[in-house]
Each structure stands twice: as C-alpha cells, then as structure tokens.
Design brief:
alpha/beta; eight-stranded mixed sheet; six-stranded mixed sheet
C-alpha cells in the first residue's frame, strides 16, 4: 500500500455546480483531501474541463453528450478495474453496482453513502430504477462502511441488517444558507422542495404545480427560498435517505417552511409543530416569521457542515489506518 491511502469518490451528479450533490462533493473534498490522495469522478456538465483541482482533490469528469447512465457506469468500471484505490466511496446504486462487482478483484474497501439526488439515477427508466432499488439494499447490507445522515436513517439501516454504519448527522453551509436581502415587489410563490437538486415553483393557488426552475448558484437557491411566500417539502421516500438536504437548507435560511411530519423531519424541526403538516391533509397556515427566524438560527448553530466533515474524516481514519 502507498504511504498515503488513495480514495475514489464517485457521484453521478455534477461538480462544481448547484444543488445537494455538488455541495456534498465539496464537503467530501474538504474533509478528506488533506489526509489522503483523493480522486473524484463525475459526469461533465457543458464545457467544463476534463480534469481540475477541487479543494485539494483531483476532479475527473466523464464527457456525456446526453444523460447516459450506462456510459457513466462503463467509465466507473474503467477507473476501478486497475485496482489502484484503497477505498471507493459511492453515492448511488448506479456506480455502486459496478463497485460491488469489482470490489474483490480490485481489492478496495467499499463505502456507500446513499443519496436520492445523485444525478444520472434520475434518467433511468422505471424498470432500471426498480432494479437499482434492490442494488441499494444489497449495497447497504454488504458494503464495508455505510454512511447515513440522521438518527432515523441509522435506525432504518439497522432494521435492514446493514453492517458497520456511521451517522454523519445533518450539515448546512452556514456561509450560504442564511437569511437573504430581498428585492421588494417580487411575485409571491409557493415552492415545492423535491428530492432532486431542482426547486419546483408554482403560483400560490397551485402549490403542487410543475413550473420548474433550476438555480445557477447555491446563493440563488437561498435567495429564492427566502423570497418564497411558502416553501413546502414533499414527504421523503422509503429508503436510507430520510431528510432531503434542501429541507435543512431551507430551514437554515429562515424560509417560510412547511415540512411533512415524520421522525426524521422532527430531528431538525424539533418542537416546531407550526412548521409541520400531515401528508394527504390540507396544509396548515403559513408559519409565523418569528418562528422561522428562530428555527433558522437554531439549525445553523446545531447542524454546521464542518461537524459533518469532521465525522467523515474520523470514519475514514478508523477504517483506513494510513489516514489516522
């Protein structure tokens, strides 16, 4: 083994960019690049370069003329087949299936950190998406290290019979997701937070509409969440991701947020019944501004991104002695 551990982080999202996958790639690079040789592999977006330095890591992009999960999976296979990595960190079943098949041959430690926003997985046809759901369960049960976010996700992992699991907790970039200066006179909007990196916006009388808007930067995202008349988070799906990152970011901004009542959501919005709704029933009134400001202050103080980075670095140091 080399004097420093060599790690590959793979996501079918894009980096740099806007949304949960891009932010998480930055978090991983900042947490690990000081302690190891860190490569990162992701799809190419537009005219971005093939290789660049990214917070101390080497970021490699796979050119894809159009969203093509199979082409990206082949690129992951090529990168792993030579057996040059001590650990491989995957974010979705798409690249995880490749890593699982090559783990014994290539001799690496497999780390799985499930994400519902992981880029190309949203381009899969329904049959492939269903198969990937089973692969996710297989990964959770057989990976060397499972990383989850929140107590409820850790409880689900235990019920699934997952092996070694580390709860990284929730984290928010407190330099970006803070109350924003607003320009008066903008249209009142209700924003629907989905599990993807997109925000779906609709007029106030149609909060479940499909008028899509994709922010260009995370500060744009924070500004729109703050300016919204109401931000409604959809119920999380079954699986190991119980708390969409966007929900924590909206709460951190002090946005006028309503979130589905569930154990995972209540980890973040503890004691804030006025910000919770019961799925399938009419939405309650808009929460008072004083409450949302207080919640934002508490979320920023309780869930800073640096704490997640520190937990991630410790999890790797415990797993790979050369990082300690």
């Amino acid at each position: 083994m080399a004097s420093r551990s060599r790690i590959l982080y793979v996501t079918s999202g894009t980096a740099p960019g806007c949304g949960p996958e891009a932010l998480h790639a930055m978090l991983v690079a900042r947490a690990l690049s000081r302690h190891c040789e860190l490569d990162m592999l992701c799809p190419m977006l537009g005219r971005q370069g093939h290789v660049m330095e990214f917070y101390g890591a080497r970021l490699m992009r796979v050119p894809l003329p159009e969203p093509d999960p199979e082409a990206f999976a082949r690129a992951v296979h090529r990168q792993l087949a030579d057996g040059i990595y001590d650990a491989v960190h995957v974010r979705s079943a798409l690249e995880g299936a490749v890593a699982l098949a090559l783990r014994e041959q290539a001799g690496f430690t497999l780390v799985f950190e499930p994400s519902v926003a992981a880029g190309l997985t949203r381009s899969l046809d329904p049959g492939s998406a269903s198969r990937m759901g089973q692969v996710e369960l297989d990964l959770a049960a057989s990976c060397d290290l499972l990383l989850v976010h929140g107590t409820e996700a850790a409880n689900r992992a235990s019920r699934l019979g997952a092996g070694r699991t580390v709860d990284l907790g929730h984290g928010v970039d407190t330099d970006v997701f803070v109350p924003q200066e607003l320009v008066p006179g903008g249209p009142a909007r209700t924003l629907l937070l989905d599990h993807s990196p997109d925000i779906v916006g609709a007029s106030i009388d149609d909060p479940w509409g499909q008028d899509c808007w994709t922010p260009r930067t995370d500060r744009d995202l924070a500004l729109v969440m703050c300016a919204a008349h109401l931000v409604v988070a959809v119920p999380p799906q079954a699986g190991l991701v119980t708390m969409p990152a966007l929900l924590v970011e909206a709460a951190s901004c002090g946005a006028s947020l309503l979130a589905p009542r569930s154990p995972a959501v209540q980890e973040v919005l503890e004691g804030c019944d006025a910000m919770l709704y019961d799925p399938g029933r009419p939405l309650p009134p808009r929460p008072p501004p004083g409450l949302t400001r207080a919640v934002g202050e508490r979320v920023r103080a309780t869930f800073p991104a640096w704490a997640v980075r520190n937990r991630l670095a410790r999890a790797y140091a415990d797993m790979l002695p050369l990082l300690a």
